[in-house]
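In response to reviewer comment 3 from the previous cycle, which asked for concrete evidence that the modeling workflow produces usable outputs, we include below a single protein chain processed end to end. The sequence was submitted unchanged, and the resulting structure tokens are shown without manual editing.
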Amino acid sequence: MLKELLEVLLMPLTFALLLGAAALGCRVLGRKRAAAWLFGVSAAIVYLASTGMVGDALLGPLEHRYPPLQPGRIAEPVPYVVVLGSGYIPRDGVSVAAALADEGLVRIVDGVSIFRQLHSAHLVVSGGVRPGLTPSAWGYAILARDLGVTSDSLIVLDKPRDTDEEAHALANLIGPVPFVLVTSAFHMPRAMRLMLRLNLHPIPAPTGQSAGASPVDDWRRYVPNGAGLRKTERALHEYFGSVALAAGIS
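The workflow returned the following structure tokens.
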């Protein structure tokens, strides 16, 4: 809970809001110079964090750590293809695909594609949540069946609530057997670290790459927008997660 709280407080918009509140307090106390500095820093954070330029700079090193999987280069049969969890909010009048988070939809579609190309025996779909919500593994399973994966080939892990728990669940399920690991490219470095420290043998299959989608000379990369902010937030989430992992906080 402490890790999650710190992450929320250090996200760009929240941190900028806290600085803005501090600036207002300084203004009330008559410390105009300090207030001006704090307002300026707050505005700079909002602007920079919301541009594609900064988002790509932060996200790129994560997404480029592992290249896309080339199934034709895998010499031995791989019995498992594993898709890590994401968000899933089912509701009336909304399809399963629409109820999955954007990154989750890309993960499961690529996972099914790789599963078919490799003729693997099992597609493992993962993703649990706290009580009261619906596990993304259920949404993955429904969509995988809709895409032609038989129930006999599906293994549903609906208990693990984060990547660390998913790694332990896979250690119990698969053990030392090689498997293809499908998750978002920005998430793959941390996911691989968690898998490898349990002596698992994942073959990375990153998906959903978004860094560098726009040309470097595109002026829109310097204009604040929601897409740029989302890239920055995704990258910071992974960097915070890596720091927590290094500190022994999974």
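Strands lie at 80-83, 122-126, 154-157, 179-184, 202-207. We consider this sufficient to address the reviewer's concern, and the full set will be provided in the supplementary archive.
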